[in-house]
Structures are given as structure tokens and as C-alpha cells.
From TrEMBL:
The keyword Hydrolase does not apply. Its EC number is 2.1.1.189. It comes from the Bacteria. It comes from Rheinheimera nanhaiensis E407-8. This is 23S rRNA (uracil(747)-C(5))-methyltransferase RlmC. PANTHER family: RNA M5U METHYLTRANSFERASE (PTHR11061), TRNA (URACIL(54)-C(5))-METHYLTRANSFERASE (PTHR11061:SF30). The gene is rumB. PROSITE patterns: SAM_MT_RNA_M5U, TRMA_1. GO terms for biological process: rRNA base methylation. CDD domains: AdoMet_MTases.
């Protein structure tokens, strides 16, 4: 992939862009292999590759410039505001979407936030697109409610110009710290969820729910988890599945069959509502999604499921949750990780489990980041 911003050293976010893609993938596989070296007799599968451009369906843009001439992109290491509306990582439809967003900023007179002076209102613009429908969700991160009335006044104009925009919201982040978003979300559109569909499984994304940046590879990740679970069923029939850190339900809804009991745990209540809606549409009646802390749920549990699915944040499971997994002793553990280093630390603590299978999924080409799916079996 060629990027004029990278070539001119304006943006170095794709820090591996100077390496051929085949070399990138090889380096990631080598890194994963080295981290998992203590494990014996592991089936290390070939990595799942990414497209080299047009694969990011989620944009996080710093807003700079002025209300009359907004800049959507980053502030680089030199302190320069770099407009990335033409970034080749995004699908073609994002270019038009960014143009409409800039026109809306001008029309509503939304002053970009000045970090040094601590003046202005609009901090970030967060944009997501559904791979399935092509429709969009737009979030505007503001310092305060000072320009909320102007946004509400001009939003009908934006919706008329941009019929593919389903969800629009304002997030309030009043702190001067470098935080992407705050706790308060104000949904301004009639629709509150962006509909997605991967592998015929409906998923509903809400403004503050986590979802993968790369839906094509995410679909492969979920499908692989489903395939591994089907293979386990042929060897050892099981009836109950837990999906910890379940988000909007991607893993659990792909893996569970109508005959199995599925328990999904996620701290965000909006994500739980989305997962429950998807389960109902799929006709899964033996489902219980709960808005709880995954660690607290596992700590209070007395009985283990047959299969435990975990997809923790970058920090990993941690010592306490690993101890609870050891105590509960589910027969099978499927662990999806976005940080192989914390994964390796967790695996070292799960001493009652044998690592059977590992596969790398390249969610973020041109960077050192990747996702891993692992399958483990209890020793006794």
C-alpha cells in the first residue's frame, strides 16, 4: 500500500508500512511463536491475512483547524495537525463521509478544541460503518453541551445529505486529559444501534460498545471459533457455554447451538441489550446475557461451564481471574486475545490447562498488532 502521508513522514501510524506485507505477517507469526515457546506439541496454524488497504471500518479522528476549515486526522510527533480524510486504510465511502462531516462542522459552527489553550468544543470525530449494510454511525466528542443545540438544529440537514447515516450521538468528555471519550452519551438520531451481520449472525453496535475495527478478519475469527467448537462437540458433547467479556455477543452467538445454554457477561449494559436482541433474532432461547463484571461473576460462580470463552481487553485476564478459572475447571477454554504478551502471561498461570491450538488473525496490517485465538484443554 502506498500512502503519501507516510512517504512524507507526516503520519507514521502504520509503523510497518515500509515492510512488504508478507514480511509483516511472517514477523508477527515469529513473535507469537517465541511468546508461546514454553508450550509443547501445539498446533500452530497459518495466519489469517488482512487486505492491505480499505480494511478499517472504524475511524477515530482528532478534530483540529477551525470551524470554517476543519482538519480530521491526527496531531503528529512534530505537533502538526495532519488531515487523514484520504487515508487509504479506510473504504472508499469514508472519503464522502468525511467531506459531509466537515460540511456539518462548518454549518453548525463547531469550534475544534485547542489542546494548549483549552478552548473550543469539538475534540474527536468517531465514525463506524457496517460491512453488511454500508450504513454509518457518527459520534461527536465534545468538551461540553455548549454547542449541543446547534448540532440538534442542523442535524436534519446532515441526515438529508447523508441518508446512509443511521446513528448519530454526542459524547461529553470535559476533562483536559487525552481521553478519547467520556461516560455521558446523548443519542440524537431515531436509531440507537448500527446493524451489522457477520457469517449470517446479526450484531448490533451501540455508540459505546466495543467492536473490531476490521470486520472481514473478525468474521473469520468468529467462524474459526465456531468451527473449533463444532469439532469439540464431535469429540465430547457439552451443554453449557460461558462467554466472558462478551461485548455485543460475537463469539457466543457464533459458537452456541439452540440446544446449548449460553451465558454472556459484559460490564456494558448497552452491549448486553444488543447481544440479547441478536440472540432473539437467531431463535436462541437458552441464553442469559448479563451486565456484570466478568471477574466478579467468575469469582462468585460455584459451577463451571463445559466451554469457557474469554476475550479480555489488552491487559488480559490477570492473576485473580486465572485463579478462578483454575478453581472452576471448565473442560475446554477458548481464549481470544488482542495482546499476545498478556496472553502468554495468563497461559503461564493456567497450569491446569494444555494449549492445543493457536491461530493468528491480522486485524491491523502495517502495524505490529494482531489478534490470537487459542484452544486449551483441562489436564485432568
Amino acid at each position: 500500500m502506498y500512502c503519501a502521508h507516510f512517504a512524507a513522514k507526516r503520519c507514521q501510524s502504520c509503523h510497518w508500512l515500509d515492510k512488504p506485507y508478507a514480511e509483516q505477517l511472517s514477523l508477527k507469526q515469529q513473535h507469537l511463536t517465541a511468546l508461546l515457546a514454553p508450550a509443547n506439541d501445539v498446533e500452530l496454524l497459518s495466519p489469517v491475512a488482512s487486505a492491505e488497504q480499505g480494511f478499517r471500518y472504524k475511524a477515530k479522528m482528532v478534530v483540529q483547524g477551525s470551524a470554517d476549515a476543519p482538519i480530521l486526522g491526527i496531531i503528529n510527533a512534530q505537533g502538526e495537525a495532519v488531515d487523514l480524510a484520504d487515508c487509504p486504510l479506510y473504504p472508499a465511502a469514508f472519503a464522502t463521509a468525511f467531506d459531509l462531516c466537515k460540511a456539518f462542522i462548518r454549518k453548525a459552527k463547531l469550534t475544534p478544541y485547542d489542546i494548549n489553550a483549552r478552548r473550543g468544543e469539538l475534540k474527536y470525530l468517531l465514525l463506524s460503518q457496517s460491512l453488511h449494510s454500508g450504513r454509518f454511525m457518527l459520534r461527536l466528542v465534545l468538551r461540553s453541551k455548549n454547542c449541543l443545540a446547534s448540532i440538534e438544529k442542523h442535524l436534519p440537514w446532515l441526515l438529508a445529505q447523508w441518508p446512509e447515516l443511521d446513528v448519530c450521538s454526542v459524547n461529553l468528555q470535559p476533562k483536559p486529559a487525552a481521553l478519547l471519550e467520556g461516560d455521558e452519551e446523548i443519542v440524537l438520531s431515531v436509531q440507537h444501534q448500527l446493524a451489522e451481520q457477520l457469517n449470517q449472525v446479526p450484531l448490533y453496535l451501540t455508540p459505546q460498545s466495543f467492536f473490531q475495527t476490521q470486520p472481514v478478519v473478525a468474521a473469520s475469527l468468529y467462524q474459526t471459533a465456531a468451527q473449533w467448537a463444532t469439532e469439540l462437540q464431535q469429540e465430547h458433547t457439552f451443554s453449557e457455554i460461558w462467554d466472558l467479556f462478551c461485548g455485543v455477543g460475537g463469539f457466543g452467538l457464533h459458537v452456541a447451538t439452540p440446544a446449548q445454554q449460553l451465558v454472556g457477561i459484559e460490564i456494558a449494559s448497552n452491549a448486553i441489550a444488543s447481544a440479547s436482541r441478536s440472540a432473539a433474532e437467531l431463535g436462541l432461547s437458552k441464553v442469559n446475557f448479563q451486565a456484570l463484571d466478568a471477574g466478579a461473576f467468575a469469582n462468585a460462580a460455584a459451577k463451571a461451564p463445559d466451554l469457557l470463552l474469554v476475550n479480555p481487553p489488552r491487559r488480559g485476564l490477570g492473576a485473580t481471574l486465572c485463579q478462578d478459572i483454575q478453581r472452576l475447571a471448565p473442560r475446554w477454554l477458548m481464549y481470544s486475545s488482542c495482546n499476545a504478551a498478556s496472553l502468554a502471561q495468563d497461559l503461564a498461570q493456567l497450569t491446569d490447562y494444555k494449549l492445543l491450538k493457536v491461530q493468528l488473525f491480522d486485524m491491523l496490517a502495517h502495524s505490529s498488532h494482531y489478534e490470537v485465538l487459542t484452544l486449551l484443554r483441562r489436564n485432568h
